[in-house]
UniProtKB/TrEMBL annotation:
Name this protein carries in UniProt: Threonine synthase
All copies of domain Glycosyl hydrolases family 2 sugar binding, residue ranges: 85-179
Pfam families on file: DUF4982, Glyco_hydro2_C5, Glyco_hydro_2, Glyco_hydro_2_C, Glyco_hydro_2_N
Keyword annotations from UniProtKB, A to Z: Glycosidase, Hydrolase, Signal
One GO-annotated biological process of the protein: carbohydrate metabolic process
Domain Glycoside hydrolase family 2 catalytic: residue ranges: 298-433
Domain of life: Bacteria
Domain Glycoside hydrolase family: 735-837
Cleaved signal peptide residues: 1-26
Similarity comment text for this entry: Belongs to the glycosyl hydrolase 2 family.
Residue span, Glycoside hydrolase family 2 immunoglobulin-like beta-sandwich domain: 189-292
Domain DUF4982: 666-718
Length: 841
């Protein structure tokens, strides 16, 4: 027995030694820390920095503006009537003594705006642009085994610095990275698919190697590709790096029978890059990528993996209602999943680079992405009136003050960070930049001194010939800056980093930009609200490739390109309502989205679901005839527009419709039905109100005008079982509360969405009346806030009480760090919902 015990002890010692070796090996590899927690914040100027009472604990990502009340004092509708200011952040942390001979840097994915950073009172630098990722090397200033302090100043005192709501603060993720002196730098891996088909893919991996050591290093770079956790293939290359040097290692790996990434099957692979020195892994970096091919053809449009595909896109700003600009990924997941169900397959990140985790989500969910860099170049836009401007005052001073100095670094950082995302299919260098170059608009003949006749900029081709427009443009002064020359530099900088994707821009005056030199530096010409010039552009500039990059959420926008192969698709303005770009108090933002501020579906959503999703869909809206755009024409026996051609000229927003069946008896009601079924029969209870056919209407809306009477209004597909209905609702009697999940993790990130809906005693939805709702929350959880989706709701977000809009409201809660269970119920006028219990594991 003794000998057996000795053997066991020896075996145990060997195992412990091997475990220690493995532990040491892990310690020497890359350590990436989530650096979002244990920060402190105060909203003040420099004078009170040392007053401890002013500092409050915060969790990143953090947007201080959205935590304040909506107000007209020192705010603007352009930025949602929420305040700016100057904010300070600080955080204490320690690093182990064995990190002393390594390299440590901090990564910020976005700080809005004009950030400055110090470590242990040593100034690291500034970053003016609030939408761009950046890093600082901390190594020479760190104390090891002792407390370090990092401070960040954020200056948004120019509170009208943007045309939409930007948020304020460290509103995206922060990471702290420690590596060995020989390592792969930030964004140091670039993966491309050189050949893609169903049988084989050739994967090219370009890996940057940085040696900050003072001695010559010889090591090995091992690159392994994984799919679904399983190793697919690997390769290795010798590294010979001189001291204080950087170099690139080119590798190629063949994958047989690859799992292709596309919008329906977003398959993802992982590249693991390891630097091995003396049989130890001293750095290890993972990069997610997808295998896919795509192309744009000037005559045939867009192809993904060899298949012709129309881009059915939406533009999105980066805020998400009640959470402002600091958006938990679970909030984006809910919103994008809703858009996906409508058939949307693409997103334009208007008008700035998004967060890294937003793009990760697009990769996983199968969205195509246009990644956009700037809304302004050298000349500013008018934030107060949303039009042309040449100079900015102190309150509207934005990125244009820094564009000349910083645009190259910022643009390249965007491309470097985002180039491995399979979702990204184009880089946009700018949005409607021509606004700020006055000679562009004056040349067209649409308006100003050269206006010709009664023409409509949005719906009519230019009244002047190409030659005349050129002549007008040539005689106008170019101004201090040349737009085409600036765009040429931006395009060049993108292609210094990535040549696998086309460069585009959203052109608002393409009738000039197509010949001024601006469009010539673009691989793909984006057209902003310019369905009038689709044929004109293709006819006069047959060697250019065009796409609709900003379009109204209207059927006529889709109809204009549905059968035009040479237009690859469109991006609707917008997918979701966004804060800012408002001209009237108390409206806090734009209502042009398919979803509202709370992520609830709007009538326009249902219209595009009938256009972009093949599943049978029927949706009913109503309105009094007086408020509707329709009348009954006795001669034809049809419902027609009061103003001929009205539907073809509709722009932002949707017509004023209701989603209920509650009116006064005898009222004449215009009923609209959005569907992809060829024929719909309308019933009130069991009485038929007639059949309408899609082939008989130009606007894809079936219409009836009927006298109101209580009951159940049913729209039923003829010769098909699908139908939908809305019913007259009685008095408020019930609260329906639903949660989008039953379980989340205690990680400080996961969220739960609760939606409450008013109902009558029969369970009919009440959408014509509203009530104040109080959410009773029992348990350890963070309240993110409440909203009802309305653009005119300006109550504080951080509350557990809300007045519904259309009988509906939203509550969002976020996990803390303790496992527990929470209970939530909704209460109004002594009426209670059922209690929902959520497990936080």
């Amino acid at each position: 027995m003794k000998r057996s015990n000795q053997k066991n002890l020896i075996l145990l010692a060997i195992l412990c030694f091997l475990a220690a070796c493995n532990s040491t090996q892990k310690e020497e590899a890359r350590v990436t820390k989530d650096f979002n927690f244990d920060w402190e914040f105060y909203l003040e100027d420099d004078e009170n920095q040392n007053k401890d009472a002013l500092w409050q604990p915060v969790r990143l990502p953090h947007d201080w503006s959205v935590e304040h009340s909506f107000t007209q004092e020192n705010t603007s509708g352009a930025t949602a009537f929420l305040p700016g200011g100057i904010g300070w952040y600080k955080k204490e942390f320690t690093l182990p003594k064995n990190a002393k001979n390594k390299t440590t840097w901090i990564e910020f994915d976005g700080v809005y705006s004009n950030s400055e950073v110090w470590i242990n009172n040593n100034y690291l630098g500034k970053r003016p642009y609030g939408y761009i990722p950046f890093k600082y090397n901390l190594t020479q200033y760190l104390k090891y085994g002792e407390t370090n302090e990092i401070k960040v100043k954020v200056d948004r005192s120019a509170y009208i610095d943007c045309r939409w709501y930007p948020g304020s603060g460290i509103y995206r993720n922060v990471k702290l990275v420690t590596t060995n002196k020989l390592h792969i730098p930030q964004w140091g891996t670039f993966i491309t698919s050189n050949k893609v088909d169903k049988k084989e893919a050739l994967i090219a991996i370009n890996t940057a190697i940085k040696n900050e050591a003072t001695i010559h290093k010889k090591a090995t770079l091992k690159t392994t590709i994984f799919y679904d956790g399983n190793e697919v293939s690997s390769t290795a290359s010798k590294i010979s790096s001189d001291k204080n040097s950087s170099k690139y290692i080119q590798q190629e790996i063949k994958i047989t029978n690859p799992n292709i990434w596309d919008v329906e099957h977003p398959n993802l692979y992982t590249v693991t890059s390891e630097i091995i020195l003396n049989d130890q892994i001293i750095d290890r970096k993972e990069t997610v990528f997808g295998i896919r091919s795509f192309s744009f053809d000037k005559n045939k449009g867009f192809f993904l993996n060899g298949k012709n595909l129309k881009i059915k896109g939406v533009c999105l700003h980066h805020d998400a209602g009640l959470v402002g600009a600091a958006v938990p990924i679970g909030v984006w997941q809910r919103r994008l999943a809703t858009l996906k169900k409508a058939g949307i397959n693409a997103i334009r990140t208007a008008h700035n680079p998004p967060s890294e985790e937003f793009l990760d989500l697009c990769d996983k969910m199968g969205f195509l992405v246009q990644d956009e860099a700037f809304d302004e170049f050298n000349n500013p836009k008018d934030k107060k009136h949303n039009y042309n401007q040449q100079k900015a005052d102190p309150l509207t001073a934005g990125y244009t003050n820094h564009f000349t100095e910083w645009s190259e670094r910022d643009l390249k950082n965007m491309v470097l960070r985002d180039r491995n995302h399979p979702s990204i299919i184009m880089w946009s260098i700018g949005n409607e930049i021509e606004w700020t170059y006055p000679n562009y608009g004056k040349s067209t003949g649409y308006w100003g001194a050269n206006k010709v006749g009664d023409v409509n900029y949005y719906y009519d081709e230019p009244p002047l010939s190409v030659e005349k427009i050129k002549a007008n443009f040539t005689k106008e002064k170019q101004g201090e800056y040349n737009l085409a020359a600036t765009a040429k530099k931006l395009s060049k900088w993108v292609k210094e980093i990535d040549t696998t994707r086309p460069v585009t821009a959203n052109l608002v005056i393409p009738t000039v930009s197509n010949f001024s030199g601006y469009a010539d530096v673009l691989d793909l010409v984006g057209l902003s609200y310019r369905q009038a010039v689709y044929d004109y552009s293709h006819r006069n500039y047959p060697n250019k490739t065009f796409i609709g990059t900003e379009n109204w959420a209207k059927y006529h926008e889709w109809k204009a390109i549905e059968n035009k192969d040479y237009i690859s698709g469109i991006f609707l303005w917008t997918g979701i309502d966004y804060m800012g770009e408002s001209r009237n108090w108390p409206k806090k933002g734009s209502g042009s989205g398919l979803l509202d501020f709370a992520g609830f579906k709007k009538p326009a959503y249902h219209m595009f679901k009938t256009l972009w999703n093949d599943e049978s869909h029927i949706y009913i809206t109503t309105q009094t005839q007086e408020k509707s755009p329709y009348k009954f024409d006795i001669k034809s026996g049809k419902v027609v527009e009061k103003e001929k051609g009205w539907s073809k000229k509709q722009k932002w927003g949707w017509q004023d419709v209701n989603e209920h069946w509650n009116y006064k008896k005898g009222d004449k009601i215009a009923v609209e039905v959005y569907t992809n079924e060829s024929e719909i029969e309308l019933f009130l209870d069991d009485k038929s109100l007639g059949i309408q056919k899609l082939k008989d209407v130009e606007d894809h809306i079936l219409k009836w005008i009927v006298p109101y009477s209580e009951g159940n209004l049913v729209a039923k597909a003829v010769n098909f079982s699908n139908k939908t209905s809305i019913s007259t609702a009685k008095e408020f009697n019930m609260l329906s509360l639903k949660a989008d999940t039953k379980e989340i993790n205690a990680n400080g990130y996961d969220v739960i969405h609760f939606t409450v809906q008013l109902k009558d005693k029969n369970g009919n939805l009440i959408k014509h009346q509203d009530q104040e709702i109080e959410f009773i929350i029992d348990g350890n959880v963070k309240l993110l806030g409440v909203d009802n989706g309305s653009s005119t709701n300006i109550q504080d977000y951080q509350s557990n009480k809300i007045i519904t809009s259309k009988g509906k409201a939203l509550l969002i809660l976020q996990a803390n760090f303790e496992a527990s269970s929470i209970k939530v119920k909704a209460v109004s006028k002594k009426i209670e919902s059922e209690t929902i219990e959520i497990n936080i594991k």
